Every structure is written in structure tokens, then in C-alpha cells.
Amino acid sequence: KALGYSVIAGSASVKLPQLLKVFNSGSSRGLSPVTTACELAASTVGFLYGLRRGFPLSAYGEGFLLAGQTIAIAALSIYYARGRSLGLALTFCAIFAGLVALLAAPSLVPLAVIAAGQACTLPLVLAGKAAQAWRNFSSSSTGQVSLITYSMLLLGSLARVFTSVQETADPMLVLLYLGASAGNAVIVAQILYYGGADKGRRKEKSG
């Protein structure tokens, strides 16, 4: 439980470096929209699944915090990509909040629907990580992708493999975090590898 709550505490700021990197640069270059969408869906459904199943908060609480930070990154990306359209970014956030409120209501959405969504989170996570990894590979650059954020995501997903076994014994959750750990490890390795190439290109341009 202590490890689980530590993951939740760490998740409160895990995507803040990524958010600040996009904000400070005024660009979401290098970030895959597919990855952002998949991560948003997976973290939201993961939180709702744990909530509706009555799991201990220490087993799933970071999903809410990750979803909140991911929606902020998505909104900021929309804002910059669409000519700084604040209205479009806020509309996106409002639609997302309404959908979450709907899914959280047991009287409106049965648990079976949330469970079906949870069963889709593994392919969603894998697809999201693969999309970001392919984008990095195809452009030979990681752009504004944050090393700090993905390193923290890697550590968190590894810790979640253990806490999921101990606190839920839910094979879907264990497989989900194993897949997330593998994807995060690949992206961290790419950031380290392509980061040197990015610095070299910046030096050439400045020279």
C-alpha cells in the first residue's frame, strides 16, 4: 500500500515536465496525437474501473491525476496546433469532463461497459507507446518529448506491476502495467539516443 500511495504521489506531477516543455516552447512538436489520445483513454478508464470495482485507492488513484495532466497536454497541443484557439481547447476539455461524469454514474452506465473498456486499455496503451516510438524513429528526433516524464512513467508502471499483483490480483491490470513498462522503456531509450542527435543539429544550426 505504501508503494501504491507513493506512485499516486509521484503521479501528481509526473507529466508536469512535459506540460511545461510544451508551454515554454509554444509547440507540441514530436508528441504523437495518437499517443496522447490513447494515454488519456487508458488512464481515465483505469481510474473508473478501479473506482467502480471498489479496489483500494492505492491500487488505481494515479489514473485520475494522470488523466487530468494528459487532458491539459492535449488541450495545450490543440491550442497551439489550431492557431491558439482557446475556445476549441476549452470545448475539448468540457466534452471530456461530461463523458467522465457519465461513465462514473452507476445508474447510467453498467459496470460491464467499464470492464469492457478496461479490457481495451492494454491494446490502447501498446498502440499509444508504439505510435510515439514510431514517430521518434521516423523523424530521428524526440522533439518536445520529456525525458523526466517518461522516466517517471517507467518507474511508476514498474511499481504498479507489483502493487497490482498484491492488491488486486487482476491479470488485466498486471498485463497492462507490464505492457506500459515495456513501452516506456523503449521511449526513454529513444530520448537518450536521439537527444544527442538533436543537440548536434542545434549546434550545427547555431554555427
From TrEMBL:
UniProt membrane topology term: Multi-pass membrane protein
Keywords for this protein: Membrane, Repeat, Transmembrane, Transmembrane helix, Transport
GO BP of this protein: oligosaccharide biosynthetic process
Keyword Chaperone: no
Transmembrane regions: 57-79, 86-105, 111-131, 143-162, 174-195
Principal location listed in the UniProt entry: membrane
Pfam families, alphabetized: PQ-loop
The keyword Membrane is assigned to this record: yes
Residues of the signal peptide: none
Compartment(s) where it occurs, according to its Swiss-Prot or TrEMBL record: Membrane
Coiled-coil stretches noted in the UniProt entry, renumbered to this chain: none
Record InterPro entries: MannP-dilichol_defect-1, PQ-loop_rpt
CC annotations in GO: membrane
Family designation: Belongs to the MPDU1 (TC 2.A.43.3) family.
UniProt-recorded name of the protein: Mannose-P-dolichol utilization defect 1 protein homolog
Organism from which the protein derives: Macrostomum lignano
Lineage: Eukaryota, Metazoa, Spiralia, Lophotrochozoa, Platyhelminthes
